[in-house]
Design brief:
Blueprint: H1 17-22, E1 27-29, E2 33-35, E3 41-43, E4 51-52, E5 64-66, E6 69-73, E7 76-77, E8 79-84, E9 98-103, H2 117-120, E10 133-134, H3 137-146, E11 151-154, H4 163-175, E12 179-184, H5 190-197, E13 202-206, H6 212-218, H7 222-235, E14 238-245, H8 253-266, E15 272-276, H9 291-304, E16 309-312, E17 323-324, E18 331-335, E19 340-343
Bound molecules: iron/sulfur cluster (SF4).
Length: about 350
């Protein structure tokens, strides 16, 4: 008898990232949307306010209309790390505290210099070598507590496109004593800010450019970001603002000073971080931001009345990573390499002149 032929089994096709993220275990029915005629839905998680037809996703690539309802990311992370809270450019919150920071996939913007493009642009750029890790909110918070964290951050890609999942995770984190922080592009809506307020302490916003023309290159609009900064403060979030200074996009004195003036109109006490661009992603051949330019901008902002201006990504500007008392100039928080090395604050006050320093220090 001839031996039987081996049975050939075809391997199941490998799912793409987009297919994986669309599976039931990675989605849940959303809350930040309304129904529109013809089975369409309108998502209100970010300022695009996409109207999405059946079977399609919004501009972020992760919120999908399935049979007339919006399915949204839930129950997974793309990456997570434990690092000092300052690595998220958050300087007035629990200096030196450890933070567990998690990120997902997709973004409402398409910045050509994104630090985390492997996550944020993975769906536009044709996938990712990484796949999501399914995890519960409780397990994520357990990890943070086991690692000695006092803060949980949603960052790396735009967290508001996963607002429902962020709300679930932050709700558990807050109930177990952690501070919570959104690291956002700020291209937001009042609906999303209200939705997350009761579980979120910090709104760390990127204010990327001074004009609607410049914002259009990034796929968004300036005005919703400015509106979000104002509303977040009114709602009681602790707000810090980052402007990445990018040659060819906004490395222009008048443009940056204009942004500074807008922020001072909101509050001169709003911490403003001027971070230098580092070549990467689609701008990998562009020159880094000039340290002397960053220094000059920070000096001009102080002279104009900004009280807390920081410079980052510029080793020659290390002195501008510290927090000094705006009244008597005493060193209050010394930092090195995005971590606090010495804190002299007494509660929330300067020990020398008793000036109250805004922030979430305790
Ligand atoms: S989060 Fe923004 S980009 Fe994504 S579907 Fe909603 S409105 Fe569109």
């Amino acid at each position: 008898m001839p031996s039987p032929l081996p049975v050939l089994r075809s391997e199941p096709p490998v799912a793409t990232l987009s297919e994986r993220l669309a599976r039931d275990e990675c989605t849940i029915e959303g809350e930040l949307f309304t129904h529109e005629p013809g089975g369409r839905v309108r998502c209100v998680a970010c300022a695009h306010r996409c109207v999405i037809g059946e079977g399609s996703t919004g501009a972020c690539g992760v919120r999908r209309n399935l049979a007339g309802t919006l399915r949204v990311p839930h129950g997974y992370v793309a990456r997570r790390y434990v690092r000092a809270v300052e690595t998220n450019t958050i300087f007035h919150v629990l200096p030196g505290a450890r933070a567990l920071t998690f990120g997902m996939y997709g973004c409402d913007l398409r910045c050509p210099y994104c630090h985390n493009h492997q996550l944020s642009q993975a769906l536009r750029d044709g996938g990712s070598a990484e796949m999501p890790t399914t995890i519960s909110a409780e397990s994520l918070v357990d990890e943070a507590l086991r690692a000695g964290c006092r803060v949980l951050c949603a960052a790396y890609n735009e967290p508001l496109i996963s607002a429902e999942w962020v709300r679930t995770v932050f709700g558990v984190a807050r109930a177990r004593g952690l501070r919570t922080a959104l690291v956002s592009d700020g291209h937001s809506t009042p609906e999303a800010l209200h939705y997350l307020r009761d579980v979120t302490d910090v709104f760390r916003v990127d204010l990327k450019a001074h004009s609607e023309v410049a914002y259009k290159l990034l796929g968004g609009r300036l005005q919703p970001v400015l509106d979000a900064i104002v509303l977040a403060r009114e709602l009681g979030y602790w707000v810090e603002v980052v402007t990445l200074v990018v040659p060819g996009l906004n490395q222009e004195r008048r443009a940056i000073m204009d942004l500074g003036a807008r922020l001072r109109d909101i509050s001169p006490e709003l911490p403003w971080h001027l971070n230098g661009f580092v070549p990467r992603y689609r701008l990998s051949t562009r020159e880094p931001a000039s340290a002397s330019f960053l220094l000059a901008l920070a000096g001009a902002a102080y002279v104009a009345g900004s009280r807390f201006v920081y410079v980052g990504n510029a080793p020659s500007c290390r002195e501008l990573a510290h927090t000094r008392c705006p009244g008597c100039h005493m060193m209050l928080v010394r930092r090195a390499d995005y971590a606090a090395t010495h804190v002299a604050l007494q509660g929330a006050s300067c020990p020398a002149c008793s000036q109250v320093i805004p922030g979430l220090w305790q």
